[in-house]
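Budget justification aside, the reviewers requested a transparent look at the raw inputs and outputs of the sequence design task funded under Objective 1. We therefore reproduce one unedited record. The lines immediately below are the structure tokens for a 356-residue chain.
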């Protein structure tokens, strides 16, 4: 009996020791897991998101649009949220509408007149692009330029395009290809004077649609008489032409300006001394360039882009001097942009007190 009792006692003691070891092990495991959850997880910490990637459509690399858009892209790198903006050297004042519509760019530079045409589905557009929304208008000024060789005007005693029609004078017209605003400006301007391409040819003249390089050489070689385009102050093509050819920038009469006003152009004055030999102001039709986007652009992104534009005029001027005429207080005006404001842009203008 005593032997059995001792054996039972020993067994109980061993059982107690084993249970204690199990309990201690479990507690140790739980404590280690708990501490790991709060202070030493092996999972990598969450990474902060990188800059937002965007694209802006402008025009070729020699234009003001491309250059001030590059300046804006630098500003947006430091915005909140930060943005990396790729500046696309395409497709210009009319083609950028399709670039936006097809989602190939997030925002774009457009003229207020072409934006309005696109919304209405008129002139350059066979369908309505009603999803366009404005960010900021009036970045720089543009004008319809009627550039003529001075010797052509003098030899034919021409003071106005109307003289060409009335006297059926043969004239060699040259401008950019179909689809450009230069070509639409040419057609609309001739139309305002009661002319069209067929009539020009019936007088013994011709109309050539070609590149800027060909236009420059044609004027320099005496192979063209009249060039109609959408031009900025100090336009590089006209500047170069005027260095070797005596040119005249022709004015438009009030009735012509009124006619073009029906298409969204404004009455403007092209200032003197922009080109060699041009020491006079010129009454002509004008338009404004600005940034436009699609209605589906994120509201916070549209807000940030608008803020960057309005609060960094100096940086944009450094990109291209033509932005010196930009008036941030008018940038949210629908007439200046040509389309309704994007909600994100509108919120910025309202907060900044720039909308009535």
């Amino acid at each position: 009996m005593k032997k059995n009792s001792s054996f039972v006692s020993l067994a109980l003691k061993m059982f107690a020791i084993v249970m204690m070891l199990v309990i201690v092990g479990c507690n140790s495991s739980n404590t280690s897991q708990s501490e790991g959850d709060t202070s030493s997880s092996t999972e990598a910490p969450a990474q902060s998101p990188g800059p937002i990637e965007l694209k802006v459509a402008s025009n070729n690399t020699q234009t003001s649009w491309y250059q001030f858009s590059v300046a804006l892209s630098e500003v947006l790198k430091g915005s909140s949220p930060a943005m990396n903006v790729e500046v696309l050297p395409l497709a210009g004042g009319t083609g950028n509408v399709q670039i936006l519509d097809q989602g190939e760019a997030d925002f774009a530079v457009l003229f207020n007149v072409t934006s309005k045409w696109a919304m209405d589905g008129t002139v350059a557009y066979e369908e309505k692009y009603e999803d366009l929304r404005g960010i900021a208008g009036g970045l720089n000024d543009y004008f319809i330029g009627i550039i003529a060789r001075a010797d052509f005007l003098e030899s034919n005693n021409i003071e106005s395009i109307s003289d060409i029609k009335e006297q059926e004078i043969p004239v060699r017209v040259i401008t950019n290809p179909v689809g450009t605003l230069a070509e639409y400006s040419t057609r609309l301007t001739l139309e305002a004077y009661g002319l069209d391409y067929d009539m020009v040819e019936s007088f013994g003249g011709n109309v050539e649609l070609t590149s800027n390089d060909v236009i420059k050489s044609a004027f320099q070689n005496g192979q063209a008489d009249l060039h109609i385009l959408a031009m900025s102050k100090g336009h590089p093509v006209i500047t170069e032409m005027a260095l070797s050819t005596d040119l005249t920038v022709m004015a438009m009469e009030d009735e012509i300006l009124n006619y073009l006003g029906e298409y969204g152009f404004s009455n403007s004055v092209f200032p003197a001394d922009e080109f060699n030999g041009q020491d006079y102001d010129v009454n002509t039709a004008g338009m404004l360039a600005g940034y436009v986007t699609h209605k589906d652009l994120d509201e916070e992104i549209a807000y940030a882009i608008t803020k960057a534009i309005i609060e960094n005029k100096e940086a944009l001027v450094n990109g291209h001097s033509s932005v010196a005429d930009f008036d941030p207080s008018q940038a949210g005006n629908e007439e200046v942009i040509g389309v309704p404001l994007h909600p994100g842009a509108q919120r910025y203008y309202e907060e900044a007190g720039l909308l009535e």
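Residues 20 and 335 are 84 Å apart (CA to CA). Residues 1-47 have pLDDT under 50 and may be disordered. Computational costs for records of this kind are itemized in the attached budget.
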